[in-house]
Amino acid sequence: xxxxxxxxxxxxxxxxxxxxxxxxxxxxxxxxxxxxxxxxxxxxxxxxxxxxxxxxxxxxxxxxxxxxxxxxxxxxxxxxxxxxxxxxxxxxxxxxxxxxxxxxxxxxxxxxxxxxxxxxxxxxxxxxxxxxxxxxxxxxxxxxxxxxxxxxxxxxxxxxxxxxxxxxxxxxxxxxxxxxxxxxxxxxxxxxxxxxxxxxxxxxxxxxxxxxxxxxxxxxxxxxxxxxxxxxxxxxxxxxxxxxxxxxxxxxxxxxxxxxxxxxxxxxxxxxxxxxxxxxxxxxxxxxxxxxxxxxxxxxxxxxxxxxxxxxxxxxxxxxxxxxxxxxxxxxxxxxxxxxxxxxxxxxxxxxxxxxxxxxxxxxxxxxxxxxxxxxxxxxxxxxxxxxxxxxxxxxxxx
Length: 399
Ligand code: PMP
Description:
The protein has 399 residues and is α/β, with parallel strands linked by helices. It folds into 2 domains: 5-40 and 290-398, Aspartate Aminotransferase, domain 1 (Alpha-Beta Complex), CATH 3.90.1150; 43-286, Aspartate Aminotransferase, domain 2 (3-Layer(aba) Sandwich).
């Protein structure tokens, strides 16, 4: 077979390779990025899909507009307003097939081979691969416990004049980090000052454990004149409701939204109308606040359990910032007392002990930090988390 040259820029994800090992019986996995399927609001989704078929069977089962099903666009605009982004109109967003498609449409519409794009180090693996497929040259901006380092980001923007900057400011995957308010403002100011497009990918912002995080960069843009024209915001129903619905959305300046809509026409014509009508009915029924309260509580307990167990079992061999939301712990092996310091090596010993996680290196577009790893606390209950981290402790003493 003669494949397109663009495929030379990408390889299959290292995570997928690791997932092949997860079939081993009895393994406890902290490796996935999935929400817990036991927490899906099955009754609510059933009611919403029934209502979609009863109220508007024609629309729910027919082809639809590429921009999205209007009742859903209205519900999503209201949902964004409830989170502080008050000026989002239904026409100001398009529905996408997961937020993953929004990322692909951004790649398609904005990236020419050789264009520079700044991402966080570490960042979402599928973003790295998607942007590379379009030929992007990725530049990495460092992240600390407060999200991306905005001083360094500004220097990189000034030096490289990127096509755009891609950030996951709220409980990032994999960093778990939360960009603080001051840095959020700074991002908006830089967007205007350097006339640089900023993409805010926000699938985890609703999954906070204690106090609500600072407003999204989109919501804050109202306070920074001129910033909105440099801002794209991607949202998703995946982590809070169901990833199988494949409902996401993108808010962007009209000119960009029009080009993205054109590309979506050639791609999947539109996101499943049945899924969109179901999501619209779900939001309209007002079930989201109770669902969010329930998932936040469960994930908060699991995050707490994982943090406590990691400290107890691994002590000074590991360092991390306790996440305040999302699905992930991002940690570094310190090598204290001569213990293992390499995430890949530790992942192999851990699998032998019956516990899996993802080493951190694939999440870096450039200059990977080999000591890092990502642990998801989403799909194991507290007892399994304690048992799994106990196995990590055993793996550490053997490694
Ligand atoms: N962005 C980030 C940061 C993610 O972690 C994910 C899912 N893992 C996505 C986008 C894509 O999610 P979906 O397509 O299901 O909305």
